[in-house]
Structure formats: C-alpha cells, structure tokens
C-alpha cells in the first residue's frame, strides 16, 4: 500500500462545482422520477401488460445498480466530468429509443438496459463522489444533502412537466423532448472534472482489494443490506403509485402531482437529513427513517384513498424519500475515505437497485395476478421494520483496513 499527496484544491470555484452538480442531479433524477407517468399511456398504446412495463423498469433499475460501481470506480480513477458527459449521452439515447419502441422485448433494451446504464453513469452518485472530493469530511453529509435535495427538486419539476408533455404531445414526443433536456448534462459536466486522489493516512488499494476489504467490514455489510429496502420502497411507489391512484378513482393528474409532492417534500427531507447527519449518529437516523416509512405506509392503507390522503402520504414519504442517501453516502465516506467513495457507494447502491428491481417487478406481477397492489404495500411495511432493525448495530467509525499503519 502507498500514499499519494493530499488532494489538490479544485481550479474551479466550489460554488460552481456544487451548482453544476446539482443541476445535473436534478435533470437526471427528475427524468427518472417521471417514468411512472408513462405507465398507463405506454401500456395502453403498445398493448403491454403491467408486468411487462414493470419488468422494463425493473431491468432499468438493475442495470443502473450493476453499472453504478463501475461508473463510480471510473469516476474515481479517471474523472467525474468525462464520466458524467458519457452518461448524459447514453441516458439521452436510451430515452429517445424508448419513444420509438414497438414492443416489450425492445422496451427491455431501450427503457431497461440502455437507459439504466445511462442513469448510472450520469447519476447523483457520481455527482456526490465529485462533491466528496472537494469538501472536508465534516461537511460531506450536508453537501450530500444538497445534492440529494437537488435531485428531489428535479422530481418536483419534471413530474408536472412530463405530464404536461404527455397531455399536449403524446407519450412518444414527450420522451423526445425529455431526451433533449438530458443533453444539457454534457456541457454542465465540464465543471466537475477531476478525479479522486489518496490523502496522507489513507491506503491506496486496487479495485478488487478495496472491495474485498470493504466487504469484510461488518458495518458496511449491514448498510448495504439495509439499502435494499430503500430501493424497494422508492421504485414501487414511483412507478406504480400513479396507476394505483387511478385504480382508486383519482385522475392521472393527481398521480403526477403526487410524485411532484414527494419531490417537493424530499427537498426539505434531504437537507434536514444532511444537516442532522453531521450532528447525530447516522445509523440511528437511518433506522428512524425506515421505521417511519413503515408507519406512513400502514396509515395510508388504513384510511380511504382521496386526493387529500394521497397528497398527505406523498408529503410524508417525501420527507423520508431520499433522506437515506446523504446518511448512507456519509457513512461510506466515513468508513473508507473519499478515495473509494464513488466505487463503494456504488456497491451499496447496487443493493438499492436490486431492491428497486424487486419492488417494480413484483408490483406488476402482483397486480396482474390479483388486480391489486395490496400484498406489495404490506411487504413494504415489513421490509421497513426489518431495515430499521438492521441499521441499529452499525458502528460510526473508520474501517481499520483503510488507514495506513504507522511505524
């Protein structure tokens, strides 16, 4: 193991890096958050079953998760700017291909694999790796909260905009316009150029050795396992909630605004999470978030569905939506340092996306088999309680294998 000199100060002002990164996060995550609005028009126009559409979204989430560690590792070693630029191009190409997809099999490729890989390479995970490189450790949770809040702002903006595009131009042209917006990521990525460097006291390990040592750390394993549940909740609600509300007698516009309300309240939730993460044990905060999600889902199922209850549930879930991200990324940075943040957060995010795959796919299967989403809602409650328990034993301290021994 060797050390490298301390990370160089960025030539680009920190404020500009954060602004550009936040806009990229907003565009990328906002687009992803709007895909649930296409459930009904796409399935009705192409004759797809809810399970087939759910499978396309599930493949997207899985492709996103599998590609994320590699995207993070590439950004760590070769630079976040070029990584995000390539990701923006792939992401736009996948969404554009979705607009001209004729059947389920091609949808698995366009909406699933290509779009999923593009999301991973242009994701807020890569943006946070860039932020982690240029801010001190004690401020990382707060800055990660800003990036996550920006992602939520994108969801708040893109949900009504996406629905407006669909209503005015049809789902196909809506996707074309969204693909054009995604191309803005390419020029914005120039502000985030640079790569991670080891600092004094940190080990400089090859990719597989770093991954092996990280997985040997019990607290990291628990964090990765618990993050599965976050993906399950988010993907199921994001993709199936608009259709669920229509099934309950509400309009598609209510469904789109429900997703927007989640994004709006998640801005506050993410900022609050990032702030509290610098002052209280992150694992305790994560446990509280997952427990609160289980309670929110339970209460939503107990009351009759109306516009008021839909928006109230969206507000509650919005506060808890991505509030796990700055805390999870903060713990990964604390465990292993900024040098491996992109890759090792990417591994945790892979678990998140496996959960997303299961949540989206299972939602479609259960609906097609039973005509209802009830079983998946109940499973979401149980998983929330389980994740709350898993996070409690996590130790908030550096992993010993990632610090150099002094003579």
Automatic annotation (TrEMBL):
Q: A single Gene Ontology molecular function, please?
A: transmembrane transporter activity
Domain Major facilitator superfamily (MFS) profile, by residue range, is: 14-398
The source's superkingdom equals Bacteria
Q: Provide this UniProt record's keywords sorted from A to Z.
A: Membrane, Transmembrane, Transmembrane helix
Asked if the Swiss-Prot or TrEMBL record annotates the protein with the keyword Transmembrane, the reply is yes
Q: Which CDD domains does the record match to this protein? A: MFS_YcxA_like
InterPro entries, from UniProt?
A: MFS, MFS_dom, MFS_trans_sf, Proton-linked_MCT
List the PROSITE patterns hit by this protein, alphabetically: MFS (PS50850)
Which residues span the membrane?
Answer: 12-33, 53-71, 83-100, 106-130, 142-159, 165-186, 222-245, 257-277, 284-305, 311-336, 343-363, 375-394
Any idea what this protein is called?
A: MFS transporter
């Amino acid at each position: 193991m060797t050390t490298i000199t301390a990370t160089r100060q960025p030539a680009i002002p920190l404020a500009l890096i954060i602004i550009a990164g936040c806009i990229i996060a907003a565009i990328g995550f906002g687009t992803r958050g709007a895909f649930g609005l296409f459930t009904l028009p796409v399935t009705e126009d192409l004759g797809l079953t809810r399970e087939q559409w759910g499978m396309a979204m599930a493949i997207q989430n899985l492709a996103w998760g599998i590609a994320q560690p590699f995207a993070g590792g590439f950004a760590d070693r070769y630079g976040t700017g070029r990584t995000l630029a390539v990701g923006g191009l792939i992401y736009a190409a996948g969404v554009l291909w979705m607009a001209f997809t004729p059947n389920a099999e091609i949808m698995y490729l366009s909406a699933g694999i290509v779009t999923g890989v593009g999301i991973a390479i242009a994701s807020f995970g890569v943006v946070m790796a860039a932020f982690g490189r240029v801010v001190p450790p004690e401020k990382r949770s707060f800055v990660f909260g800003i990036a996550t809040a920006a992602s939520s702002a994108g969801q708040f903006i893109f949900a009504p905009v996406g629905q407006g595009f669909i209503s005015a131009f049809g789902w196909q042209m809506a996707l074309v316009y969204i693909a054009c917006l995604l191309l803005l990521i390419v020029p914005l990525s120039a502000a985030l150029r640079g790569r991670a460097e080891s600092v004094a006291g940190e080990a400089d390990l090859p990719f597989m050795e770093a991954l092996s040592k990280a997985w040997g750390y019990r607290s990291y394993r628990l964090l990765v396992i618990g993050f599965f549940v976050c993906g399950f909740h988010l993907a199921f609600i994001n993709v199936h909630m608009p259709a669920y509300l229509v099934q309950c007698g509400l309009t598609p516009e209510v469904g789109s605004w429900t997703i927007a309300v989640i994004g709006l309240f998640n801005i506050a939730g993410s900022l609050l999470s990032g702030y509290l993460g610098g002052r209280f044990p992150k694992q305790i905060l994560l446990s509280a978030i997952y427990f609160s999600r289980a309670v929110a889902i339970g209460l939503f199922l107990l009351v009759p569905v109306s516009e008021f209850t839909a928006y109230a549930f969206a507000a509650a879930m919005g506060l808890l939506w991505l509030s796990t991200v700055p805390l999870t990324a903060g713990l990964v940075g604390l465990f292993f340092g900024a040098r491996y943040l992109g890759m090792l957060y990417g591994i945790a995010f892979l678990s998140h996306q496996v959960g997303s795959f299961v949540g989206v796919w299972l939602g479609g299967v259960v609906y097609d088999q039973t005509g209802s989403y009830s079983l998946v809602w109940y499973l979401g409650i149980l998983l929330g309680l389980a994740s709350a328990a898993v996070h409690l034993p996590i130790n908030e301290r550096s992993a010993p294998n990632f610090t150099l021994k002094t003579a």
